[in-house]
Give the backbone structure.
Amino acid sequence: MNGIDEFDLQILKYLDADGRMAYSAIATALGVSNTMIHQRINRLMEQGILTGIKPVLNEKKLGYDWGAFTGLSLEKDHDSSRIIAELKKIPEVTECYYITGNYTLYIKIIAKNHEHMRQLLYEKIDNIPGIAKTDSLIELGCAFKRNIIL
């Protein structure tokens, strides 16, 4: 499993539950030294398994009450790198995936209200050269979201 063992998984579970948990607290819980925890976390980062420790924001509490999942059809699929670079300039586009099927890309958009969503879709995203069509599904709420830690 990508060079990780059960001990690494235990560390990841602690960090997943509380990314701000002190390494010393993890060390105490697992009965090992702080140094060992530091070494393991550094190795997990070097391997690209742990890509960072970031806060999980509650978008609704920040005033972003609308969310949408939007499929993007491109005029030419080989333009995807340029289009992704343009999408990265829009802070409200929070995720972007390559997919199969009717679309080339699938994005997650958050907005403050329906007017903000309309502006994002019609005035920003639809105006990116190379996007042929968008198709959006409005999010009604997140049932759950989690990291995969077995």
